[in-house]
Amino acid sequence: MTRRRGARLLWSSCLLTAFAISAASPPALTVAQQPRYDIILRGGTVLDGSGGPRFVADVGVSDGFVARVGDLSGAVAETEVDVRGLFVTPGFINLHSHASPAGLLIAANMLTQGVTTEILNADGGGALDVAAQLSSLTESGLVLNVGANIGFNSIWTEVVGRDDRRATDDEIERMRGLVVEGLTVGAWGVSSGLDYKPAYFATTDQVVDVVSAAGAWRTNFTNHDRLAPESNFSSRVGIAETLEIARRAGLVPIVTHMKVQGHEQGAAPELVELIARSAQPGSVAAADAYPYLRGQTGLGSLLIPAWALAGGREAMLERFEDAESRERIIGEVHAAMTARFGGPEGVFVTGLDVELTTLMREMGGVTPGEAIVRTLTESNRGAILRFGSEADLVAILQGPTTSMACDCGATEGPASHPRYFGSYPRVLGRYVREQRHLTWEDAIRKMTGLPATTIGMVDRGFLVPGMAADITVFDPGTVIDHATFQNPTAPSTGIRHVLVNGRFALRDGSPTGEAAGRGLLRTDRLPSRAMSHDMPRSVRADGEIRDGGTLSGVSVSIDIEQAAGARIARGEFRLTDSSSGLSIDIAELGVLQVTEGWASLSGVAVVEGVPRPLLMILDRVDSAAGGGSTVSVQVGDDYRVSGVLPTVRITAGR
Prior knowledge:
Elements: E1 2-5, E2 37-46, E3 55-62, E4 65-70, E5 77-82, E6 87-90, E7 92-94, H1 108-111, E8 115-120, H2 130-140, E9 145-148, E10 150-151, H3 152-159, H4 169-184, E11 190-193, H5 204-211, E12 220-224, H6 235-249, E13 252-255, H7 268-278, E14 286-289, E15 294-298, H8 306-309, H9 313-321, H10 323-341, E16 347-350, E17 354-355, H11 356-362, H12 368-378, E18 382-386, H13 390-398, E19 402-404, H14 419-434, H15 440-447, H16 449-455, E20 471-474, E21 495-500, E22 503-507, E23 510-511, E24 537-547, E25 550-562, E26 570-577, E27 582-585, E28 588-595, E29 598-607, E30 610-620, E31 629-635, E32 639-645, E33 648-652
Parallel strand pairs: 2-5, 2-6, 7-8, 8-9, 10-11, 11-12, 12-13, 13-14, 14-19
Antiparallel strand pairs: 1-32, 2-3, 3-4, 6-20, 15-18, 16-17, 16-18, 20-21, 21-22, 22-23, 24-25, 24-33, 25-26, 26-27, 28-29, 29-30, 30-31, 31-32
């Protein structure tokens, strides 16, 4: 059993601000009077992230967390903002971020989209030392919250290199160790981009061998699908491989920036259903998507054949110089371009900022493959690649477990793709308000509660008491993107205010410069899971927390339930610590989240008129270890207790 007071909690996504607790004469935590808040957002229409119906309410924020959602007409605050007629939602969570370190110091392009949290190291890339990466970013000052994945591609490149070969048994073990090391220091999942070389050279079995090291962590595997010439660059085959790897590795699959390309256009509804059917009992299978029909990557990354990229750039250039290899490369580039992007008309070369068809003419009427080989010989270039159909995009966005993620990130400089400035407002303005393909409630769920639960967060994604005060306020009548491929950095409009950990990062549409963002770390007690909003659930426990066979003197009584579709939980929670005399009653209940053998509860306790966030996590202990459930209770940053309760009942469903 662990009991801690007056210490800052580092290992959790719940990095909330501390209050002082008096040990000399600790009062019972009850609401004696209406508390004073730091900020009150008055009269807005709340969409709480669950997908449930919107409602009009005030939102009170205290010391970085949501203290109350309801009628605060008798309360006062240092800052009060009239948000009548505006939508008030949890801050948006970007699961697929390519943010730059310098960009995270400003993040204007993300704040004007309503984003408050970014998950780095997408497509299998990024730093191997996740702890050092987040520490460095945090020390520099963050405008947004950031978490990170551990990248399979980075691991494969580090251990196996860039050659086209299989990994040895010893290398597999080294890579498994790097996966576990990344998760141990706080990574939110394992990301991969099997379409990119050299990770492309890993067989499905070897990918499973490596990422299955994460299975015990109950986390997720997010993958940019591998489209190979052997399958005629089939999106269906690529998605199926992602699902297979996750199933065999014991992970939640996330089909990242999901799309349907080439000859398979029109199949999106079927592939959305394929993902849904693949979910293991009690779990979830998911996707993320952005609202555009063009992607952005390296010019050669998805067009130059894998064998020609093996060994890196210098080896590729040598093959360009060999007449026989060059002819073969040019032919295979054309085949890939035709199957995936509709031919040369589907390729725009960034850096040169020219259509490939124009470049072909300027080079004297050469073939598409020849134009690309010549361009890459001079320098690495990027590309905007056209794919897919609008009907498929709509079906993907409507998928019940598809989160919105922009495949972009905070940037301080120019961008070649409008998704860096427009993704989230484009969904809200175009696909919700104008075309009505999504309801407001479901679109917000896909930007907040769904991505949070998919990767395992417990203190963000919902606008309920006890959650971190990451809040986005926008005008549903005007929110829209303005960025285009001709003017990709035009800011979106309609996002009025953004709070990050209870401080205004965006006020009246303009960045404030506040650096209130935090590095968010995951623990092994935060499973990737399905949302539980639409099912009745309950938690009941009563007893003394134990450390092995030793009684701790800390007793808890829990009788909490939440009806299907209900906004907040109902019931009683009480903790008594005989060693300090501390007695905790919950004053405001938030949301009860459950999955198999696990539950979390957010809420607010009040001490001497001061609200504090309360978070409880219950997690079943393996029967071989004695059974029962671990319990962790955190009140602000000043009090945390954990141990084992012998009898806990967690129920979900009818």
